[in-house]
From TrEMBL:
Residues 420-432 have a biased composition (Pro residues). This is Glucose/sorbosone dehydrogenase. Residues 1-17 form the signal peptide. PANTHER family: HEDGEHOG-INTERACTING PROTEIN, MEMBRANE PROTEIN. The lineage of its organism: Bacteria, Pseudomonadati, Pseudomonadota, Gammaproteobacteria, Lysobacterales. Keywords: Signal.
Amino acid sequence: MLALALSLIALAGVAGSAPPPVTDATPTRLVPQAIRLDDGRRFTLQLPEGYTISPAAQGLKRVRFFARSPDGRVFVTDMHDLSDNRRGAVHILDGWDAQANRFTRISQYLNGLRNPNSIAFHVDTQGRQWLYLALTDRLVRYRYRDGDTAPRSEAEVLATFPDYGLSYKYGGWHLTRSIAFAGNGKLYVSVGSSCNACIEKESVRASILEMNPDGSGQRVFARGMRNAVGLAVVDDRLLATNQGADHLGRDRPDEALYRVEDGADYGWPYCYPSGRRVLADPKFPRRRGCAGVPRPFATFPAHASALGLAYFAEAPADSDSDVNSAPPGSEIDAPRHQRLAGSYLVALHGSTNRRIGHGYRLVRVGGDGRPLGDFILGFQQASGVVGRPCGILAFGSDAFLLSDDHRGVVYYVRPTLPQATPPPSTSPPSTRPTPSSTGHTATP
């Protein structure tokens, strides 16, 4: 049910990559796990046997996407609620308690933000560190130094975006903007449509933009993506999840994961994916039809709302370090636990119309695009919705953080398999980005 790998041969200057590692495709047996939140709520989720889940941070609002800072700390965005508002924030999750498996400090790095969705760190060619933040109407960046608890500079506006449209209740507006850096040093920004299905007046709508890290050289890299909320770069390849239109029925169109190609038109509003086919929307006929519209690399149930994605790298056999950025004090021995190695997780946020009931889960896909089934189930129950998965951040070998923007919870998911010897150090491995790296990508 998930898929990833990309063809950013489209990205100028990007070298080819080695074949993905062999993925463990063993069928997964899910077992129940009890969840207890600080607000008194109790429910059960289902995870693969050999894994456990627990709240690592609570008391947040509409918590969305993560980034790891150059000095190894976890930053996360918070949009406050579903409305168009200026009460959003960026939080630092700090003080990792390896015994309790939770963060002991949550501090506010920024507040008063208009719908902050996506965050990334970047080190420029002069060695300066920057925090990038995508807001509804603009892309901004701040100077960053190790240990910062507040910005060291005023926001530098790099780009502005249209911010009008229909309310989210009517399938439009799309307040979120998402960002990712690629290995060629370019920055990619997704801008959703202003409507459910319409002919847009501005070319930046329903597109992915490419620009330099200072905002110059902006151009439309790919178009026809109604709302590409999840962007990730893996092995210098750009990937995007995309949300389909709402007017085609309960089971169409598929939600999709794409290999994003330079100059490609992914069809919206004229065409949509259904299975392995690309079909024409009868409401929006066009002369050339759907010829040349790329097929998705992976598809998900209609209206499941595919959001965040993460790749889990394979640790070198002779390495004691964890390429997936283990938390400080983690007792997971990276080289021994490799079940997720070479595969991807995608968060299916869940259909806005809860009667449809699609999504509300995490799914897994192999490095070759094979669907590997569900990984976490149970965010929608008979009694109602208990969570909506959104962002994923690799946080140790076979372990990750997962944001729930419905309850304002960050979960820590990890293997419980026995290991021989804990790592000798309680300090996290170096996670300092190179001049072409980013925080909010799935790049290991």
